[in-house]
Design brief:
This protein has 2 helices and 2 strands. It has about 80 residues and is of the alpha+beta class. Strand 1 and strand 2 form a beta hairpin.
């Protein structure tokens, strides 16, 4: 089993629930470092920061003319009869 953890001081925090391992069970941990650290999420955003993030997200596909063609092809493939499975 492989699970992700975060080291804080002398504690290692689990990021997933481990309900299938009873409390008090001895476990062996093989440490592997992740080079690119995941930043802590910024919880307190101002209204302007929230709006800027939303505008950036909504504009991600802006001015990409080939997207219409790509989505039309996807739609055509989705509606093509594939026969009985």
């Amino acid at each position: 089993m492989k699970v992700r953890r975060i080291k804080r001081g002398q504690n290692i925090e689990l990021l997933e629930q481990l309900n299938n391992i009873p409390d008090g069970t001895e476990i062996i941990i093989d440490l592997e470092f992740i080079e690119k650290q995941i930043p802590e999420p910024k919880i307190h955003l101002t209204e302007e920061e929230k709006l800027a993030k939303l505008n950036k997200l909504f504009g991600a596909w802006k001015n990409q003319p080939d997207l219409t063609e790509i989505f039309a092809e996807i739609d055509q493939q989705r509606h093509t009869y594939q026969g009985r499975v």
